[in-house]
Task: structure prediction
Amino acid sequence: MGDVAVGARSGHDGEEHRGRPVESAGPAANSAVTSGSDSGATEDGTMTEDTGTGDEGPGGSAPKGKKPRSFWKELPILIGIALVLALLIKTFLVQAFSIPSDSMQNTLQEGDRVLVDKLTPWFGSEPERGEVVVFHDPANWLAGEPVADPNAVQTFLSWIGLMPSAEEKDLIKRVIGVGGDTVSCSGTGPLKVNGKALDEASYVYPGNTPCSQDDQGGQFTVKVPKGFIWVMGDHRQNSRDSRYNQNDKNKGMVPVDEVVGRAIVKAWPINRWGTLPVPDTFDQSGLNTQSSASPALTVAPDALALVGVVPVALWRRRKITVVATR
Result:
């Protein structure tokens, strides 16, 4: 009997709520909808907007923003980043050199700063005729030259790699012959490469003759081996270059491995700013027997280097390295 009575009442309730939503029966159901916020379902089934953030601090106050780091705390980090970038630029892209002598006049004057492209060799390119290059002393060419006495700042920069050590000696000259070339000078000139006379009026120091008439090396005919270059200064009568070092172990040649890079820009002083292009005489027909692939390797890296050298030149106005020439 009891079971029948319960069943009858249940059926009555079903008829009573047919066709409309069933309302919440108690507090438990209601809390399941609205727990954790002031929003939830209204009686007609719509949702109200939740305006709570969930991030409020004690008492409902908004959290305080993080205090910015002070400039003095950030300064060492900025200096460290700058030093790392300078080191990377100097090692892989460009390096500044200072010219202390007149052996490359008038192309380069004493006190000029040049920027040397160190990126090109990473692409497999080797020095080309007519380029101005910086190279390590190949066979004690600078014997007896005074060694710079660095100050504390220069010593520190050498220690972190932004300057070479005081004992390191480099030279800067123009490439006249590359591997396989025959270079010759007779009388006062002209200078010949593979039998072709060079027109050097655009870069040889005014009043100098292309060849020097002396018995110490000014008159010569040499064959440049593969992997070497023959270099000469633009101030022909004031440059101790390949001509006057033919008695060394390399017979006056410079190993390509000793070349630091090509000087591409005169960066300082600003009134002498300019590029250092290859003179047109080195492009004459029959002179250049190198493969056409080699110049292609040089053009693209030089363009990339030039993009980066201008801001570097403005930033690094002090002398980075002393290039010993004579």
Notes: The chain is about 25% helix and 15% strand. The longest strand covers residues 259-268. The longest helix spans residues 71-93.
